[in-house]
Write a structure and sequence with these properties.
Layout: H1 16-32, H2 42-47, E1 54-57, H3 62-66, E2 76-79, H4 90-96, H5 101-115, H6 120-129
Parallel strand pairs: 1-2
Amino acid sequence: MKDFGVASDIWSVTSFNELRRDGLDCERWNMLHPEAAPRVSYAEQCLGKRKGPVIAATDYIKSYADQIRAFLPGNYKVLGTDGFGRSDTRKKLRHFFEVDRYYIAVTALKALADEGTVAMSEVSKALKLYNINPDKPNPTTV
């Protein structure tokens, strides 16, 4: 986020379902081999040692990306398009369901503020800069 001097990595997930299967397989193996070195899920291998929050943004419902939460240590936030489509373009869909780049940035800043890495006032600045109305109705209830 160049607007706030925050560095980030961007990862692409081709299948949250496969990441979950892998995590569950590791859990099962670890349960059945209690004295062996534990296996670590692929998601945790990739993201487990990284500092800061992990933000997942998907055009699917939140539970799709949320299914790997158990395999990620730390602060994991999920944005998704829960609800009925009300948009004629993907850009409008992402804005309506609060999954566009501005909401991703605000979510990341809020997670960093919750960790004490940035001041909470940075979140307020982002809301103003990105013209986000904090009092707009929750898109899942409209």
